[in-house]
Amino acid sequence: MPIAFHRVYLESAGYFMPGEPVSNEEMDHYIAPLNRLSGRIKQRILAENGIRQRYYAIGPDGATRYSNAQLASQAIRDCLGRARAGLADVSLLASGSSGGDALMPGFANMIQAELAAPPMEALSVHGICAAGVSAIQAAAQGVEMGGHARALAVASELPSRLFKRSRFAARGYDADFDAHFLRWMLSDGAGAVLLGKGEGALPGASQGVRLRLKWVHQRSFSGDYPVCMQLGLSADRSKGHLDYPSWSDAEADGALSLRQDIRLLPHLFDIGIHEYAKLVRDGWVDPDQVDHFLCHYSSEKFIPVVADLMEKAGLAIARERWFSNLAWRGNTGAASILIMLAEFLETREVRPGEQIFCYIPESGRFMTAYMLLEAEAADGPARASAAPQAPARAPAGVSDAHSADAQAIAPPHDPAAAPQGLGQLLTELASIWHDYRSRVWRTPLVRRLRNRRFTTDDYLNWMAQWIPQVREGSKWMREGAASLSEPYRPLAALIDTHAGEEQNDFEILFRDYRNAGGTAEDIDALRRNPGGEALNAYLHGLAATRDPIGLLGAIYIIEGTGQRIVPALLPLLKASLRLPPDAFRFLEYHGHNDEHHLARWLSAVELALDCDEDGRAERRIVDTARRTAALYLMQFHHVMEEDPA
C-alpha cells in the first residue's frame, strides 16, 4: 500500500548538469569504443535509445571535473536558490545514488561536508533508479511526522568514471555485450527537491500554485527475479569483487564492469504496469485524472512497450500528457526523476487541481516506484489527502515475456492476446496469477530448489504429498460436469474430455515416485498434505453445487502451474538430482501438454460465458481462481518446513 502524505509540499526543485552537452558524435572523446565490435554496439544502442546529448563530469582526458558529492551539492544550491532558502532552514538531508565517491562513509554525509552544512540528520539510500524516490519518501516522512519543518532529497549519479577506455585495459580492451551496453546509455547529473509545509507558492513557470505530495509507493521484486543490472559481481554473478585476491584480479575478470542483462528487461515493465494497475484498482490514482505523466525509461525504445501495456490493461494515459527529457539530459539513473521533475516545473505551467504522476522502474534486481503530486492554489487552505475509494477497475496483466524465465513469470494466458470479450477476465486472472506465482517462488520448497540444495529425499517428500491431490483432479472435474444444467451441456462434454485425459495422471506421478526410490507401495499410504486436502475438499464441495462455473478458475491456476512453474523447476530438478529420466515423466508431460490443456480451457470459458444467463460467470471464475491459488500455495508451504537459508 502506498504511503500517504497529508501535510507535505514540494517547495522547490533544482538540478545540475556538469559541463557542456555532449552529442552522440562527441561521445568518443569521453567514452571511446574499445574495439571494432564496440563501435557497432554503440551505433545500435544510440539508434534505439533516442538520446541526442548528455553530460559528463569527466573531461576528454578522463580526469574527473566534478565529484559526485559536488554534483549533488550544486543541485541542492540550485534548489535552495529557487526557493530563496538556506541550509540553515533544513534539518534533514536524504540522498539517493548507485554510489558516491567513496565506499564509505555514507553519500549524504559526504554531501553535507561538501556543502559545509550545519548539523542535521543525514540518510544515504544506496540503490539504482528508484533510490531517488526512496530519498524523497524518507524526507517526506520526516516532514509529515513533524520531526522536520523542511527536508532536502537529492539524487546524483556519476557513472562516466566507470566507462573510460582505460578501465578496460586489464582485460585487453575486451568486454561482453552486457558490459558494453550501459557505456552508451548512462551519463552524469544531479537533482534535488525541497519538501516542507508549503507556506509559499512554487517557483517556476506556475504562478500562485503549491504542489502537494499525495503519496509514494515502492515495491521490490528482488525475491522473484535474478540480478539484471549490477556492479561488483563476476559476469556469472557467482563471485563478489571482495572475494578475489585483489581488486586488480577482480578488474581483470570483469567484476568491476557495470553490466545489464537486457534479456530480463521486458519483465521489469510487466511488473511495473501490473503494480500500477493495482494502484488504479485500489483508488490511489485515476488515469483519467492524470494531467502530467513523468515516466523514467532508459531508452525511447521502451515508450511503446509501456504505452502498449497500459493500453491493453485499459489504463492508458494519453501520450500528449507524457513528459520526458531523456533526449537532451540523458539517463542519469537515480537522479533522472528529480532532474525531470525540476525541469518540468521550470518550463511547464501547472494549474490548481492538476495531478503529476511519476513512474520509476529500477532494473537492478527489479523495483518499481510511483509518486503522485497535486497542485493547489497557494492562497487556498491546505487539503488533506482523501482516502482511496473502492476499487474501480480490475488490475492489469502482462504481455509476453522474452527471456529464459518467461514460462515461470508470464500468466497462463496473455490478456493482450485475449479473444474478444475475454480481455477483462484474463486481465484480472493475470493479476491473481502474478501474486500466486510470486508467493510460490518464495516457498521453502522452491527456494531450496533454486539454491541447488534440493535432495532426492526432498523430491520424494514432495511427490508423496502431491500424488493424493492429483488423484482427485479428474474426480471433481467429472462431478462438476455432472452438476451442469442443460444449457451448459457443450461445456460439460468438454470438461469430461479433459477429465478423461487427466484420469490416470496420478498413476504416472506415483510411478515417478517409485522410480526415484519411493518406498510406499500403495497410494493410500502416502502422507496427506494439509493444503492439498483443503484444496480437494473445496473443489469437491464446489463441484457438487448447481452450475459450478467457478471451477474454470481452479483449472486456470492448476493447469497454469503445470505450464508455467513446472517447466522452470524441471531443469533445476534434473541438475540437482542424480535420478533416471523415468523419475520425471509426470513433470515432463505437464510441461509439454498443459499449453494444449489451457487452449482447451479458453474454449471452455468462451462456452461458459455464452451460456451465462445471470452475468455472474466471470466473477465466479475469478473468485474461485483466487481461492484455489491460496489453497495451492498452502500445499506448497506444507511440503517442507520453513527453510532459513
Protein model, in words:
By secondary structure, this protein is an alpha/beta fold. Helices cover 44% and strands 13% of the residues. The chain has 21 helices and 15 strands. Strands 1, 2, 5, 6, 7, 8, 9, 12, 13, 14 and 15 form an 11-stranded mixed sheet that branches. Mean pLDDT is 88; it is low at 389-408.
Task: Give the SSE layout.
Blueprint: E1 3-4, E2 9-16, E3 22-23, H1 36-49, E4 53-54, H2 68-83, E5 92-97, H3 107-115, E6 121-126, H4 131-144, E7 151-157, H5 160-163, H6 177-181, E8 189-196, E9 209-220, E10 229-230, H7 247-252, E11 259-260, H8 265-281, E12 290-295, H9 303-312, E13 322-323, H10 326-329, H11 336-347, E14 355-362, E15 367-377, H12 406-409, H13 423-441, H14 444-450, H15 456-482, H16 489-502, H17 505-515, H18 530-543, H19 551-576, H20 585-611, H21 617-639
Parallel strand pairs: 5-6, 5-7, 12-13, 12-14
Antiparallel strand pairs: 1-9, 2-8, 2-9, 3-4, 7-8, 9-15, 10-11, 14-15
Helix pairs in contact: 2-3, 8-9, 13-21, 15-16, 15-17, 15-18, 16-20, 18-21, 19-20, 19-21
Q: State the helical fraction.
A: 40-55%
Gross morphology is globular
Structural class: alpha/beta
- The total count of strands amounts to 15
Low-confidence stretches: 389-408
Approximately what portion of the residues adopt beta-strand conformation?
5-15%
Secondary structure tally, helices? 21
Largest sheet: 11 strands, mixed
Mean pLDDT: 88
**Rg estimate, integer Å:** 28 Å
Distance between the ends: 28 Å
